[in-house]
Structure formats: structure tokens, C-alpha cells
């Protein structure tokens, strides 16, 4: 006896909508991290000032992040959505600091 299988077929419009929604959800999720990398070029004070000005860190938090970057090679300096972190990453890069969003 033959078994019958039902495979639902999605239209192209449904597939496109789901893919776009998934991309939007990923970009807007609040679990992104702004990562700052050590470069052995800039001074501690320069990096601390950048974190205070751009990421709105308190001085103590900026100092702690700077030490983490120096000793571990990188540090998560801010969390949030991609659209929230992107301008900060851009500003850090304009100051010749190495930063990414992961």
C-alpha cells in the first residue's frame, strides 16, 4: 500500500516575506554586542575619552572596559540592537579605533 505525503507549498511572496522578516528580526534584536579591539597604538586616556563621549560610559566603566581591551585583546563595550550600536561603531572607527558589532 502506498503512503501519501502532504507537503505544503509556499508561494514566492510568502517565502520573501519570511526571509525579510527574519533578517529584520536579527538586525533589530537586542542581543548584539559592540566589540572594541586592542590596537597597541592609542593611549588609555584616548580610549577612555572615546568610550565616555561615544558610548556614554561613566568614567569607571570606561576605565574597566579599556583595561579589558588591553589585557584580553577585546571587550564588549555596549549591548543593544544593531541600529542602536551602528552609529557608535562608526564614531569609534572615525577615531581610528577598531570596533565591530557581533
List the helices and strands and how they pair.
Blueprint: H1 12-28, E1 32-37, H2 44-55, H3 59-72, E2 74-80, H4 82-94, E3 98-101
Antiparallel strand pairs: 1-2, 1-3
Helix pairs in contact: 2-3
Short summary of the structure?
The protein is α+β, with helices and mostly antiparallel strands.
Number of discrete helical segments: 4
Helix and strand run: HEHHEHE
Shape: globular
Percent helix among the residues?
40-55%
Structural class of the helices, strands and pairings?
Answer: alpha+beta
User: Span between N and C termini?
Assistant: 53 Å
CATH architecture: 2-Layer Sandwich
- Number of E-type strands: 3
CATH fold description: Ribosomal Protein L30, Chain: A
For the residues shown, what is the average pLDDT? 84
CATH top-level class: Alpha Beta
Spans of at least 5 consecutive residues whose pLDDT stays below 50 are none
How would you characterize this protein structure?
This protein has a three-stranded antiparallel beta sheet with strand order 2-1-3. The radius of gyration is 21 Å and the shape is globular. It has one domain: Ribosomal protein L7/L12, C-terminal domain/Adaptor protein ClpS (Ribosomal Protein L30, Chain: A, 2-Layer Sandwich). The protein has helices at residues 12-28, 44-55, 59-72, 82-94, and strands at residues 32-37, 74-80, 98-101. By secondary structure, the protein is an alpha+beta fold. Helices cover 55% and strands 17% of the residues.
Amino acid at each position: 500500500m502506498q503512503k501519501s505525503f502532504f507537503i505544503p507549498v509556499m508561494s514566492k511572496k510568502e517565502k520573501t516575506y519570511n526571509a525579510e522578516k527574519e533578517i529584520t528580526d536579527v538586525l533589530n534584536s537586542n542581543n548584539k554586542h559592540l566589540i572594541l579591539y586592542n590596537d597597541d597604538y592609542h593611549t588609555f586616556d584616548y580610549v577612555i575619552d572615546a568610550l565616555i563621549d561615544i558610548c556614554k560610559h561613566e568614567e569607571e566603566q570606561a576605565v574597566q572596559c579599556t583595561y579589558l581591551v588591553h589585557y584580553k585583546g577585546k571587550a564588549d563595550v555596549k549591548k543593544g540592537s544593531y541600529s542602536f550600536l551602528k552609529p557608535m561603531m562608526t564614531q569609534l572607527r572615525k577615531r581610528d579605533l577598531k570596533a565591530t558589532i557581533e
